[in-house]
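Handout, section 4.2: multi-component inputs.
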Amino acid sequence: MHSVRKHTRRLNPALLGLVLTVAALAASACYPDNPQSTFGTAGPVAKLQADLFKFIFWIAVAVFVIVEAAVIIFSLKFRAKRGEGLPEQTHGNTKLELTWTIIPALILVAIAIPTIKGIYETAEPPSGSKDVLEIQAIGHQWWFEFRYPDSEVITANELHVPTGRPVVVKLRSQDVIHSFWIPKLAGKVDMVPTRENHLWFQADEAGVYFGQCAEFCGISHAKMRFRVIAEEPEKYAAWIKGMRTPPDAPAGTAAEGRTLFAGNCSTCHTSDSYRDGAYAAEITQQDNRFAAWLANPDPEGPTASRIVSAPNLTNFGERITFAAGLRDLTRDSLVEWIRDPSSIKQGTHMQAHAAVYQETDDNTAKLTDVEIGEIADYLLSLKPGEGAVVETPDAGGATGAEKGRQLAAANGCTACHSTGDNTVVGPGWKGIYEIAATRRPGLSADAYIKESIKTPAAFLVPGFGPIMPPFAGLSDKDITDIIEYMKTLK
Amino acid sequence: MSSNTVAISIPRLIPRPTERHWGIWSWITTVDHKRIGTLYGVTAFLWFLVGGVEALVMRWQLAMPESEAITPEVYNQLFTMHGTTMVFLVIMPLGAAFFNWLIPLQLGARDVAFPRLNAFSYWTFLFGGILLNVSWLVGGAPDAGWFGYSPLTANAYSLGDGVTYWILGLQVLGVASLAAAFNFIVTIFNMRAPGMTMFKMPLFTWMTLVTSVLLVAAMPVITVALIELQFDRLFGMNFYNTAKGGDPILWQHMFWLFGHPEVYILILPAMGIVSEVLPTFSKKPLYGYPFVVFSGITIGFLGWFVWSHHMFTVGLGPAANTAFTISTMLIAVPTGVKIFNWLATIWKGHITLNTPMLFSLGFIAMFTIGGLSGVTHASPPTDAQQQDTYYIVAHFHYVLFGGAMFGIFSGIYYWWPKMTGHFLNERFGKVHFFLMLIGFNLTFAPMHWIGLDGMPRRVYTYAEGMGWDDANLAATAGAFLIALSVLIFMINVLYSRLKKEKAAADPWDARTLEWTIPSPPPEHNFDQIPVVKHRDDFWYKKHPELLHEEGHDTAKPLGVPHGAQADGHHSEGGYGAAAHAPAGHGGAGVHLPGLSYYPIIISIGLALAFGGLVSTIVLSAIGGAIMVWGLLGWAFEPATEPAPGAHH
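Output:
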């Protein structure tokens, strides 16, 4: 008896420890302000998920306390004492077995009912919701593309949504599996190539919410993040309008940067999706860029693709972050990024594949610091302008060869094709028109070049791989102008 | 060579090894289940150290936010190999070590049904593990996760050979697992001692049987999935090639259709161990034996209907998610039944809190936490927030470390005296247990809240200001405490080897047949094959009065001197006095299977043949030739050499 009392006293610290553990577990709900806390909910979907978790959690706590207390109390209370015989040899009791089969089963039924209700409520917006906003999100290694089909707006890594309105995000992936997750707004749903998934959420309060890819997707999975910017409907409408408004013509260093951007970056990065028809063209272009990469994904290979799918940079200067939510948008960070992307995010396809990063010892950009600064200035200048003038390459009224020159720069042709006879990625353009006339008997130079731009794989120049993407966004007239420009290169 | 002489000449290619072999050759040619068990155990423990070091490097990297101690490439290789190693090279083979050592002893048999196949399983496991890890030395380990989700494993996204090594290594390991599983199923069905009906088998034997049946059914699924992936990568086929219409979700279904039963393959052996240890150190029979057996079988069976709970966020739709929610919640019921029966077993027992018992109690305590967090993600709406976060990492480590590894350590301390003839030191053992318990909880408990706080898994770094810093630092500190506890275990093993505190045949006053024979057991195990009348037969031989009290058949158990009393150390009674027979004397005339070179030869050939697929096809040809040679030699070599005097 004496020893039993002693044991009872010894139980107190053990039980205290148990209670403290549970309290610590419960305290985990006390940091809703952390950027990705699943308890800091800001909309109905995340709230349902958090509430259901709390419901199951407290049931689990009850079971936890019962089992852990039993382990600790039994093992201390029933310790063998010297000189005692065998304990009673109990073999089992069917009633007890039924009890601890049925009671847990009933508890699980209690959990299953709100669970199944929750499955259906989180699957679709409430029936009868009006004015559901549909957005398409596409996962890429390692960034997110967002398309607004109703407004024909394309952007990347920052998702603008209006508050108080259900949003359905259609989820797809261009390459591997990613997972779309905004902890404070909704649990994740995977982005799977070959399928379209969707999730819905609603932001009740304006704010900037953190999102992150949740499915392992390769080297820079850890750095594939994004932001959701929820704003009042008027502000959201203004943002959409801004995305359809071209920036003012760049001046000074930004104007220099624009030329450099056209020559080095614009094959993969579109920056003018405010143009009519640009939305459809960009979707095709992005697919073509990906196809070019997929055909030659090995950056070390002899026919390495120089083209990869890339974020649309329209009105980039409006962003608050860049590089998939990794850095606040500042000129310094942008310069650091352009010079050497892997100093911020390792393994980017941009650095591995784009021509401007090749042939240097450390794979940094083949540009001077001044030039990089000019590109940064140009990108930062990309904000909705004063006038609604759509500035396309022929804004100056250029025609013929001059317009062709502008088109070649704007579409990134000159990123891969020099105007001399040297090879950058593709063949140089010096004398290309004369050469084109000789390539296929019976096929005129005009027809040959036109076909080559529309279906690059149709004719391959010996020694060059099938890496050029088709340029479906170019009209026949555009191509004629480019050919005019080519004729001037002798 | 003319064809009619082949049959005779092949066995002569290598003379049969005899008992003259000693040292390393005696291990290479052994077919003794106990020695093979030791080989499994030692090898798996070495891989445990490798997997542990991989974990420590990852925790070092994650101790601070924005750390660049290692590159993402290396981190991705580390977490892929840590998971693959701990599952396939540590917990599974540690289970196999116990199966090998204990199944024949608990059944009252002299060896497993197919001793050479058993040796073949071990060598194939060893070479499979080496093939997997060779990748570290030749340009990079696999880096697509232990789950290898398609299309990240496709050539376009995994340019190196790492993923190919992963496929081929797992294929070789699968052969080893299948061979072992068949062996144990046949052994358990056919080699039980006379009188040992299925429901008189020890619980550990039952769980081995369930595990082996799961293995036989689960391994082919992953084998098929891996062959398809292998053909995609090596021969340009398109099973999972999304660009050509292949389906990445097919891989996920195949992987988890294997992967979920695999979870039970990992945990059921530990549940078997716990079910042996708790009764022994409570001096009570296992409470609700038939319920514990049937809950194990039920878990094994239901384990086939829950795989898509790993895929709740894949977008299979609300109907599929509902179905898999229900099946997943169902499986919590038999798991709970086990836990309650274990608690009832220690209730009013006379409990000895020594190291094996502490680890078994730790198993119940930690596994329960893993089970409860499991219920929270059996619910798809809450799982949508938890999937692929550190919450999941916490959950499955509570199941596989707090559960499976604690159970395995319990088994190591419990059966060590039987296997080696001496005890592990108790004081070191207790320090090991408490350090590991504290280190384990310090590592994995905080992961629950960083997961709920939004930290995804498989990230090599994280941003500052997310609120994850303290918990990550604590987890890293805990990981090094775990490492310290493992170091103390190793010191304990060395110290105990030097100290050699001798163990009697039945040092724990235990209940099953392995405790009726000397420690360590003689090569032939039992002088006389025991005859069994009751469940826990040995216990009743030591306590025949209990039979009367409990109203069993009151006839005397065979061979028990009337009124024999257990004295707490060993028994006088029963089983042909094997407990006292010196190994050299007993077993005269017992015919044991002969030593053989062929198991290791075939295993080498198999590993080379697979290794050739990722290096040069010449190697595959050589490996294939060695395999054919070994198979022919094996086929023509009798299991037991008819010539007298080749062995005991």
